[in-house]
């Protein structure tokens, strides 16, 4: 017989979300459920009581009240014991509506009201905590030059007039700017709006000082930010179609 137990690394500290930290209550309760899942599902019956006791002590050390621990440990264990009997999947049922997720900053008391409004409008709300340790503690690394940054929305200025161009890239900004500069060497049919402006007016752009408007690692958010800035600024050579996908709310 193969017997398994919940394995914890030697570096395991037992530190989890403190119950009195600025996190949504459901995230703190989920911490209990996740620990019970590990203790219950990864362990043979002979280890379960020992592991549940470890979960209990760990939660106490993270300032969870005893009545909260007792209630939710019991609730989760009952769920795990009965899940095979209660869980049924209808393979023929399909949800015609795609689930929409929205991420909002967590502000105690205020976010709960916003959560109810968004849920009633068909959104699945995910909270994010804006103040993190890395906002306060810096690792001491040298800051990157603008040209070495990635996942940015940028602006290029014409040296000879008040026109400019806004774009976005996931690669190093230096690489994207070099592509803009060299695009003029391609066949006329492949010229960008920047190359067309250079040829038609005899102007040139300031390739050495691109201005970063926004940093965003997620491509969909970066594209929205790019379209937003195109709408916001005047005297741009961007094509009108560059903002066709921008929601009217902006």
TrEMBL record:
The record's annotation in InterPro entries points to: GIY-YIG_endonuc, GIY-YIG_endonuc_sf, HTH_animal
Q: In what residue span(s) does the GIY-YIG domain sit?
A: 149-236
Write the protein's name: GIY-YIG domain-containing protein
- Species: Camponotus floridanus (Florida carpenter ant)
């Amino acid at each position: 017989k193969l017997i398994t137990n919940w394995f914890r690394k030697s570096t395991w500290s037992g530190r989890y979300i403190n119950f009195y930290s600025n996190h949504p209550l459901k995230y703190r309760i989920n911490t209990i459920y996740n620990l019970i899942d590990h203790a219950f599902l990864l362990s043979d019956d002979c280890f379960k009581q020992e592991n549940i006791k470890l979960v209990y002590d760990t939660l106490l050390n993270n300032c969870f009240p005893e009545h909260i621990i007792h209630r939710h440990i019991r609730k989760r264990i009952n769920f795990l014991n009965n899940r095979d009997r209660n869980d049924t999947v209808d393979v023929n049922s399909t949800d015609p509506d795609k689930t929409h997720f929205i991420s909002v900053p967590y502000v105690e008391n205020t976010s709960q009201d916003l959560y109810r409004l968004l849920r009633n409008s068909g959104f699945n709300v995910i909270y994010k905590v804006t103040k993190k340790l890395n906002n306060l503690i810096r690792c001491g690394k040298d800051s990157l030059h603008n040209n070495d940054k990635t996942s940015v929305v940028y602006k290029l200025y014409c040296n000879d007039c008040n026109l400019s161009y806004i774009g976005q890239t996931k690669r190093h900004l230096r690489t994207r700017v070099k592509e803009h500069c060299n695009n003029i060497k391609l066949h006329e049919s492949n010229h960008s709006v920047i190359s067309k402006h250079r040829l038609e007016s005899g102007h040139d752009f300031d390739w050495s000082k691109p201005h970063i408007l926004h940093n965003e690692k997620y491509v969909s958010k970066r594209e929205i930010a790019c379209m937003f800035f195109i709408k916001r600024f005047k005297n741009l050579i961007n094509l009108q179609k560059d903002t066709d996908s921008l929601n009217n709310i902006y």
